[in-house]
């Protein structure tokens, strides 16, 4: 028998080792998660606008034209301006009408006052208690007509002989100063006519007679006298101061 040494464990063939398994992949982490969310939001917004534009096109809704808007606003402005012009004109017409109405009312009040004065005059003159007076000049008025010409209006009255007709002629004379001297202008001087006829009158109770007289340049009147020459009676003369005779012709009278 061979005394062979026992086999060494290190000399024994190595047992086969199992193949190493592949390691599991490590989980992936996005280093910029906020950027991803922003991109997603932008994408969604873009999709939303695209869908809206598509709906507008498919729906047939026309896009607003800025020029059309401008024209519409301009038309509205012109309409408002026209309304303002119309209202302004209407207001002016109302003001003019109101002014004309006030003027007409003033004239009517003056007419009413004149008529009341006439009625009072008639009552005093022809009333049952009226004072009996013969032929007289109740009122004498003079108004300037330009270039030294004065228009006179004389109111003649009489109620002494009721129903009787008074006939005759009226003449005027004016006293004043000229070149520092007293001067009297008779009827022929005032009428600038030789043998100038008088202004005729014919009435039962009263009458207004009118005419014109001419004053020379530089003449300052002081007093005016009316001379009545009745057909059957003595001459009647009445005098008035120039201030009284021309009072109504003064401004504001």
Automatic annotation (TrEMBL):
Positions of transmembrane segments: 35-58
Keyword Coiled coil included in the entry's annotation: yes
InterPro entries attached to this UniProt entry: DUF6776
Keyword hit for DNA repair: no
Chain spans, region Disordered: 1-29
Keyword tags: Coiled coil, Membrane, Transmembrane, Transmembrane helix
Coiled-coil intervals: 63-118
Domain of life: Bacteria
Ranges of Low complexity composition bias in the record: 9-26
Name of the protein this chain belongs to: DUF6776 family protein
Organism per entry: Luteimonas salinilitoris
